[in-house]
Amino acid sequence: MADIDVKVAQWKLVEVGRVVLIRRGPYIGKLAAIVEIVDHRRVLIDGPSTEQNKIVPRHVLPLAHATLTPFVIPQLPRSAGTGPVRKLWQKNEIDGKWAKSNYAQKTERTERRKNLNDFERFKVMRLRKQARFEVQKSQAKLRAAAPKS
Fold first, then answer.
1. What DSSP element (H or E) covers 31?
2. In whole angstroms, how large is the CA radius of gyration of the chain?
3. Of all helices (H) and strands (E), which one includes residue 63?
4. What is the pTM of this model?
């Protein structure tokens, strides 16, 4: 038999300290940390964000309503209270790391686009037309300069 080295995708594990994104319920789109694993379908979460409008109170959440993120709060003790979770959340700068993630940036862009008024949508359309024109112009120059075969 061949010696095979199998690596488990660590960020997909449900573990104490894993940061989750809530997908359903009253706290949709907010972050929380897994504090305790209740059973194979539910976890106890706590979301002590530094921003007031992003705080998630401690409650049990079905795993079907959460998306696991690649962020983990290391050395978070099981069943830790909100105070220790808040300190480790701030120490590990979870809000800052989340703001830099591709998913957060994409959702922020879509929200901004969704809330544009009519004139702002018109300006976006004009800018996209200008950019498209510049790309087509440069492609035409390249085609003209290319040797004909």
1. strand 31-37
2. 23
3. none
4. 0.73
71 and 128 belong to one structural domain: no
The predicted-structure confidence for 19-37, as pLDDT tens digits, reads as follows 999 999 999 999 999 999 9
Contact 137, 129 (CB under 8 A): no
Residues 128, 80 share a domain = no
pLDDT digits 0-9 by tens, 42-95: 999 998 887 888 899 999 999 999 999 999 999 888 888 889 999 999 999 999
Tell me the CATH number at 52.
2.30.30.30
CA distance 77 to 56: 19
Q: Is 112 left (phi over 0), alpha (psi -120 to 50) or beta?
A: alpha
Alpha carbon distance 133, 82 (integer Å): 54
Are 134 and 87 members of one domain? Answer: no
